[in-house]
Specification:
mainly alpha; 4 helices; about 65% helix
Length: about 90
């Protein structure tokens, strides 16, 4: 999610190539196609997290809750803008 919302800002600052740049170069995809691809990956990751939380596992629930909470924080910080890097944003 970070690379999707912060892609253009990072490129302006001259940072290293993001996953967006790498995917576009490797597969010849447009920026829009690449954003759509990785948004689908984020959606699928949420589905995987939710599905796995309902399965019996040997991992204690308090550990799984920490992973879920980290994913929630990342989702909140990078949902619409780079809320971590941009100090003047909504976050």
């Amino acid at each position: 999610m970070d690379d999707i919302v912060g892609h253009e800002d990072e490129q302006e600052r001259g940072h290293v190539a993001s996953i967006i740049e790498c995917y576009m170069k490797e597969y010849g995809a447009s920026k829009q196609e690449t954003y759509i691809k990785f948004q689908k990956e984020v959606t699928n990751a949420w589905k995987d997290i939710n599905k796995e939380l309902f399965r019996p596992t040997e991992v204690p629930m308090f550990v799984l809750e920490r992973v879920l909470n980290l994913a929630r924080v990342i989702d909140t910080l990078y949902k619409e803008e780079d809320g971590y890097t941009n100090a003047k944003g909504k976050t």
